[in-house]
Amino acid sequence: MKTSSKAKAKSASPPKKRKKNRSRNTLPVLRNISIANAVEKLRPAIPTYIIRPEKLASMADLFVKNFPGRVMYAVKCNPDLEVLKTLYKHGIRAFDAASIEEIKLVRRAAPNAKIYFMHTVKTPESIHLAYHKYGVRSFSLDTEEELYKILRQTDLAQDLELFVRLALPKNDSAQIDFSAKFGASPEEAIPLLQKCRAVAAKLGICFHPGTQTMDPAAYTKGIRISVETAKQAAVTIDALDIGGGFPVAYPDMAPPPFSRFAHHINQAVKDCKLEGIELLCEPGRALVASAGSLIVRVEQRRNDILYINDGTYGGLFDAGQQLQMRYPVRHIPSTSNSAACNQKPLQPFRFAGPTCDSLDMMDGPFYLPENIKTGDWIRIDNMGAYSSGLRSNFNGFGRCNTIHVIEPAVFQNKEEEHRHVHTPS
């Protein structure tokens, strides 16, 4: 039976390409240009992320060189595929994933990376896929129920690496207390450690001191509690994960340098005689925050309120009423007299997001030149963390762009000088 020419043409035609997700566009890398000049050139009409790969590389290098163990990146902080690839390229060989979707993403970005599934409440289906399809062997838990779930879904595997998560006492130097939601108390952890030791090829303890932990001693305390808990359980642990929470400098926040945290951690490891076990940390914000900026446009000015084209339902969730985070901000005028504009006195502004929800407000204050006007742009710094990953499309305002910018060395060297450029004296 002959095949018609029309049928042959149909069978020979290539498969249709899937439609791209138009909610987020990634533009090519722009090289040897300042961020301000990139904005002036592109004149973005929708929120635009600026990612600086060289800053990602320097932060990865800082952690890899100074932390006395394995550094794993917390994917939830910024799941951008290029961010993951850049971190892997510069020495971050392990990733902390909280879902099967994050696991899939890591496998795309870094097929040979080690993945730790560190959410303590996982679905049975995600455990099964993680173990059997994506090669994940490391799981965290804080209940006996979760242990049995892991054992069932991995078919009583003999190569499991199990991390029992401890809930630490409240850390007053942290902005968010993670132990309020996750972790077993030391008393609860003792029998759980014993049960895990009986079935785990590698047994670990993990904890998290909390977001933006300003006191390095919080890590010392967590290490000591972990060691004492293992001692009371009469089990040998093979690994200790001290979590993330390393702080980033925001306006009115001056955290100690990472070297001081590393010193406290090193000293605690020596004091507790832990040199023989695997030590891990899981930074997120500290690795990527300073590498990202968000460019927003002023759509209207009303007294001290700037109505901008992004807000708490988009990339500025942390600036909203719950956390009220402040960010370093810089003015990028829509006209060419930028030097004159930036010499104007600063005044405090509030931001209003683009949605119809009156909760979409950010009180700041954000200090910007008094003559900022509709059509100007604002560069919001330290937006590489917990911004793009939290975006929604509420009211249809979810669209954004991402640009990777490699600035000339003269701009890179002035980063410290500009960090608090729009903070009042």
The tally of beta strands, per DSSP, is 18
Largest sheet: 10 strands, mixed
Poorly predicted runs of 5 or more residues: 1-23, 416-425
Secondary structural class: alpha/beta
Instruction: Enumerate how many helices there are, as a single number.
Output: 14
Strand content: 15-25%
What's the end-to-end separation, in Å?
86 Å
Q: Supply Rg.
A: 24 Å
Helix content: 25-40%
Task: Please explain how this structure is put together.
The protein contains 14 helices and 18 strands. The chain is of the alpha/beta class. The strands form two sheets. Strands 1, 2, 3, 12, 13, 14, 15, 16, 17 and 18 form a ten-stranded mixed beta sheet that branches. Helix 3 crosses helix 4, helix 4 (81-89) packs across helix 5 and helix 9 runs parallel beside helix 10 (258-271). The longest helix is centred in the middle third of the chain and has 17 residues, at 217-233. The chain is elongated and about 70 Å long.
List the helices and strands and how they pair.
Layout: H1 5-12, E1 24-26, E2 30-31, H2 35-42, E3 48-51, H3 53-66, E4 70-74, H4 81-89, E5 94-97, H5 100-109, E6 114-117, H6 124-132, E7 138-141, H7 144-153, E8 161-165, H8 186-199, E9 202-206, H9 217-233, E10 239-241, H10 258-271, E11 278-281, H11 285-288, E12 292-302, E13 305-308, E14 329-332, H12 338-342, E15 346-352, E16 361-369, E17 377-380, E18 400-406, H13 409-412, H14 415-418
Parallel strand pairs: 1-18, 2-18, 3-18, 4-5, 4-11, 5-6, 6-7, 7-8, 8-9, 9-10, 10-11, 13-15
Antiparallel strand pairs: 3-12, 12-13, 12-17, 14-17, 15-16
Helix pairs in contact: 3-4, 4-5, 8-9, 9-10
